[in-house]
Give the backbone structure.
Amino acid sequence: MAEYIEGKRPVIEALRTHVPMKCILMADNVKKDSLVNDILRKAKNLDVPVKTISKKKLDELSERESHQGVMAETKPFEYVNVTAILEAAAKCAEENEGRALIVMLDHITDAGNLGAIARSAESVGAAGLIIPNKRAARVTAATYKSSAGAISHMPVSQVANLTSCIERLKEEGFWVCAASEHAQDYIWDANLKGKIVLVMGNEGEGVSRLVLENCDFGVKLPQVGAISSLNVAQASTACMYEWLRQNRAAGEAPLHTSR
């Protein structure tokens, strides 16, 4: 089923963050204002076709009736299989003294959170993200926006069963770490060196019982403020950077140059 982005500014933002598009649809009566001109310019630069159709047809395609004469038809995100992520992880480990990170999300439901996590994962050099193929957020235009385009550079695999996937990752030499506020150990005291799978839980319930039971160990973030927890995207970032800190060799040059 085709997915559409509606409205001038949302389409501009989608073009800016490189959401893959089949085409842009423009009503035959749309006024050529500065926003429309910006869309046409960006579309030309990115080789995205612009098609003129009747306003009536655009109204029929619109779900929110907020298209303002402009809609973008997106391409489906290209997910990879777990094998591809394992191959990327093997390359990471080979090039970086055995360190590799895979991030598994246990039924995260917000596409914006998925994007924010992907942005941090790309920043620390993670090999990929693993998400469930049902009852979980998938990659949408909101994901591209919240990831600032980083999702385009991050392999994502959808799997039917997280616990079965965990067993396969263990067989490939990964230690599986669940981030949970109910864990006994602080993340600073845990050993995150080498090949790690970081499991982050659902926004409301955290890591599910069955998934938690199949992880090798759990960690929590120290908190001294009045609010009891960070949101999942913030917590994921903190955990990923602790993995990166532990895996940086003494005296090693900066892992990433500024862009």
Remarks:
- The chain has nine helices and ten strands.
